Amino acid sequence: KAGVTQTPRYLIKTRGQQVTLSCSPISGHRSVSWYQQTPGQGLQFLFEYFSETQRNKGNFPGRFSGRQFSNSRSEMNVSTLELGDSALYLCASSLGPSGSEGNTIYFGEGSWLTVV
Amino acid sequence: GNSVTQMEGPVTLSEEAFLTINCTYTATGYPSLFWYVQYPGEGLQLLLKATKADDKGSNKGFEATYRKETTSFHLEKGSVQVSDSAVYFCALRIGGATNKLIFGTGTLLAVQP
Predict the structure, then answer these.
(1) In chain A, what residues touch B10 (CB-CB under 8 Å)?
(2) Can you list the pairs that A51-59 forms with residues at least 24 positions away whose Cβ atoms lie under 8 Å?
């Protein structure tokens, strides 16, 4: 069974541009979360979606947004890019929204964003 | 608030040495606890988990026991290999209707032959 798939894997953008990252969860998974990983701040939660609804949001500016489609695929968008947005963006999927024992969270390999 | 504290690295060991990476947490309620591993250039892989007090998670020779009395979830392995070199993250999920994970800062493990 395919894992969590993120595209693109690598991209370079210029300050002020916007970027859209895509995530396809494991088949049958309906919950998708996004994280930002940087050397300075570590792994930080961005947002979480279930059944096309945002369930939870981290402490990021409004330039960071996301959405989930009816097939559970998700996208995140960052507008007006800043140098500090350079990071590895990780997507994670799980069966459902709850923290039940069987609800293991699986991560994709991430999208490496460099802002120049 | 909810948080995870893990020992700073890097941890440098010789092959076949014993490994301990300390992890303590602060959380409201009854969190689930996880160890994830990240190899260079890759995403996170779930290594093991424990969902309630006294549970022991184990996988690939790694073990960690959920200790509620000491709020700890230390990672151990009896004999490390060069292939275990990676960054290890301790994380908690506070439960309820959310999958939000709170991560520690990560510990780099370097195993030398």
Answers:
(1) none
(2) A55/A31, A55/A97, A55/B97, A55/B98, A56/B98, A56/B100, A58/B100
**Secondary structure in 3-state letters for A37-75:** EECCCEEEEEEEEECCEEEEECCCCCCEEEEECCCCCEE
Residues of A in contact with B103 (CB under 8 A): 42-43
Q: Are the Cβ atoms of A55 and B43 closer than 8 angstroms?
A: no
Quick one: pLDDT at residue B57?
96
Q: Are B79 and B65 in contact (CB under 8 A)?
A: no
Residue with tokens 């402490």: A59
Tens digit of each residue's pLDDT (9 = 90 or more) over B56-108 = 999 999 999 999 999 999 999 999 999 999 999 999 998 777 889 999 999 99
Task: For strands A42-50 and A53-57, give the pairing.
Answer: antiparallel
Q: Quick check: B99 and A90 CB within 8 A? A: no
Identify any residues that bridge with A19 across adjacent strands, giving them in sequence order.
Answer: A78
Summarised one tens digit per residue, pLDDT across range A57-77 is: 999 999 999 999 999 999 999
Strands B19-21 and A111-115: unpaired
